[in-house]
Amino acid sequence: MKRYIVMRLFFVTLLLYMAHLTGCGISTSVYEIGRVMPGERPGLKKKVLVLSVIDQAGIGEEKSERITASLVELLKKDRRLLVHRSTTPIPPPSKIRSPQYGMAIDPELAQRSETMGMHAVITGILTPFEFDSKKTGIWPFRRLRRIFEISMIVNVLDVTTNTLLFTELKSAKKKTKRDVSEGQEEKSAIDKKIVDRGLSHILEDQASAIKKVLKNRPWTGRLISADGKKIMINGGKNVGITAGSVFEVFGEGESIPSASGRTIYLFGPKLGDIRADEVTENYASAVPLAGERFRAGQVIRLKN
What we know:
By secondary structure, the protein is α+β, with helices and mostly antiparallel strands. It has two domains: 2-215, Double Stranded RNA Binding Domain, CATH 3.30.160; 220-302, Thrombin, subunit H, CATH 2.40.10. The chain is built from six helices and 13 strands. The strands form two sheets. Strands 1, 2, 3, 4, 5, 6 and 7 form a seven-stranded mixed β-sheet that branches. A six-stranded antiparallel barrel has the order 8-9-12-11-10-13. Helix 3 (61-76) packs parallel to helix 6 (192-215). The radius of gyration is 23 Å and the shape is elongated. The relative contact order is 0.16.
């Protein structure tokens, strides 16, 4: 029953968060983008920003930071990703406007992530442990064992579109090896080694799921500037752009006002093609091949 209530709160929170970020039309934007921007051939790497895991289980800052570090290392094993760990402290609840469960991200951080050329922002929440007791053995040798459930939620936010790409809760049930008494406190029955093993399995599953989701998403970038015939792209050698790479440029589609005052634009019609000319580590300049009306902020995609 408690798990059902938690999940209800979780999904309500996600809806509230996305309503705050984009105002309305959440499902429409996700499916519209999937239709307009189909998959591409592999090549360009995707920059992702991992935020510190939010500890609602009470395991402590040091342990939660180790969990974040472990998630980062697991994601780094995928060579198609450029993984960055955020050093920004977690904002207070009043700023992120997030209830107890669900997506939690500072809107200002989302804006900075876009400026940094990030493809996605990853958040994680370690939820409070769930406890239960189970009697084992036969009378008069019955024993009371404590069973606790470890759960972690991860969310992947598409920075370009401000849409939620992926959210998943993974759980692991563990049973204490020692007996417990009826009145014993729940936390006193927790074996730290068992918790570590449970979290290790959860992190591996979550990392695999995140990598699969990002693999199936097309690489997208933005025009930083478009002055006459000189165009700047927010990606360079670091993501695999080389001189001669050709990109499609898309205009602004339907606009959605967000609660923060920003206007979010869905992908619109293709405006033309541009070709990378000079490439540095983090940026690239490009020249128009076809089309016009290029300007800063427009979305680009590697042309197949």
